Amino acid sequence: MSEFLSPSVIEAAQAHARAEYPKESCGLVVGGVYQPCFNYATAPEQDFEIASRVYKDALDTGALQAVLHSHPGGPFYPSERDMQSQIDMDLPWGIIVTDGERTSPPIVWGDSLPIAPVIGREFTHGIHDCYSLVRDTFRLGKERLSEQGIEDWPFDPIELPEVARSDGWWSGDQDLYADHFAKFGFTPVPLSEVRPGDCFLMGIRSEKLNHAGILLSNDLLLHHLPTRLSRREPVGIWARHAEIWVRYEGQNA
Question: Where does the NlpC/P60 domain lie (predicted)?
């Protein structure tokens, strides 16, 4: 659990979420203390808005640590707007799910938080999904991946951009991999030339490329499906169904 999420912060944020149900609660963690905020959103059952002066006052203290809000009735993952706001603020964000009586522990995300091990993650859209796994693997780099038992990774740490995305983006207007991977420095490579560090892209029950994984050494693949923990497994069937392989060549390529 993140250091700013002390038991007192969690308890206060959960109590606020229950009290505000069915509206979204919202608050700031400042100097290790949860500060409940008024939700100024036009539709507070579906969104939240904190007054800009409240943000400014918290930022001026130099002790603003996180933004927490509730999702009444779910879901247990960030919306596209949640993700974009977190990216824009460059500050940890968290979600508490409540039905007015029960509350979940905060689900937190943000690049300043420790990166979870790449093997054995539970799937959470936008936080621990297939793109998150690719991105975090590149962020960790070869030394830290070696500590997790992944040898022969070819890259030092590389920061791939985060992308705000909706759950089921492949059924809407977004096209995560097709729209961004070339800009992020990936170029196609033929199957006959793939090597560790290359990524595969494929569509699962979709015409869009909506799943990605990474080739490791020893003909193993690292990827994360919604119904499974992130894992290594033989490349076998995945290589046959991959629609395209790409290699990172640098964001100025």
Answer: 89-253
- For the stretch 85-108, pLDDT in tens is 999 999 999 999 999 999 999 999
Q: Which domains does the chain have, with CATH numbers?
A: 7-109 (3.40.140.10), 130-248 (3.90.1720)
Q: Please check whether residue 187 is in contact with residue 201, taking contact to mean a CB–CB distance below 8 angstroms.
A: no
Alpha-carbon torsion angle 116, 120, 125, 131, nearest 10: 70
Ramachandran region of residue 71, left (φ > 0), alpha (ψ -120 to 50) or beta?
Answer: beta
Q: Is residue 129 classed as helix, strand or coil in its secondary structure?
A: coil
Annotated catalytic residues are 130, 211, 223
pTM for the model stands at: 0.95
Q: What is the side-by-side strand order in the sheet with 220-223? A: 186-189, 244-248, 199-202, 211-215, 220-223, 231-234
The answer to whether the beta carbons of residues 136 and 116 sit under 8 Å apart is yes
For residues 241 and 243, give the distance between their C-alpha atoms in angstroms, rounded to a whole number: 6
Q: 5: which 2 tokens?
A: 């999420």
Mean pLDDT (whole number) for 175-184: 95
